[in-house]
Fold this sequence. Notes:
Layout (H helix, E strand, L loop, with lengths): L1 E6 L29 E6 L2 E5 L5 H8 L6 E3 L5 H4 L6 H7 L2 E5 L1 H10 L15 E5 L4 E3 L2 E10 L2 E10 L2 E6 L7 H5 L6 E5 L12 H11 L3 E5 L7 H5 L6 E3 L5 E3 L1
Parallel strand pairs: 3-4, 4-5, 5-6, 10-11, 11-12, 12-13
Antiparallel strand pairs: 1-2, 1-14, 2-3, 7-8, 8-9, 9-10
One zinc ion binds next to helix 2.
Amino acid sequence: MKITFLGTGTSVGIPMIGCQCETCLSCDTRDKRLRASIVLENHGKKILVDPSIDFRQQALRERLDTLDAIFVTHCHADHVFGLDDIRPINFRSGVIGCYASETTWRELKRIFSYVFKPFSLSSLPQIFAHTIEGKFSIFGLEVTPLEVIHGRLPVTAFRFNKTALSVAYVTDCNIIPENTLEQLQNLDLLILDALRHREHPTHLTLEKSLKYIEQLRPRRALLTHMSHDLKHEVVSNELPENVALAYDGLQVNL
Ligand SMILES: [Zn+2]
Ligand SMILES: [Zn+2]
Ligand SMILES: [Zn+2]
């Protein structure tokens, strides 16, 4: 299994327009963060988790020209506004299965209503809508959808299991409910939201994120969806041994 971080930034992206802070002006490429998204590859099949608003740039950078499935965590602009840019991927991959919860589909179908209009002649993203209802298997992976809380919005986190290997992608949340925590045990890799140091109504602070990691004890944890408060080099020096900040372009082979 290979995971590539397409983006690791919060909704405004880093650098943030107009900001003169140390992180936004940093020359360290790890401080340049496009909007949060990963692509997970197993047996040559690629799953995109969130067609971020930066998807076009991310796909060009990673030479990503095919996809086999798209998973959507929730319908916020930073996570879904790249959906229209999958059209060139459709030229190679055909219709792509898109997996999201019922709540997420309700919003996606409203925002992207033109994609679901029958008999439209214009060039449209070709996706097949799957509503996630529970565990499912795809491309040799067992996928467990889990609910986390993002302010008031339920967000879908994903646990991916294959023989002797477990990975979870948990973005955009400030609370991980007890029953989800139970299903995030024994992970080889946990990818977790960590926005900044100061409290935020819809995201985990770095400190809260580290507390969850301490509680869940994954073998390794990578933090994502970071704001400019977290300068890569500064924060990296203060993290426990099994935790690191992810960065755009980071690849993890498992
Ligand atoms: Zn987000
Ligand atoms: Zn800044
Ligand atoms: Zn969000």
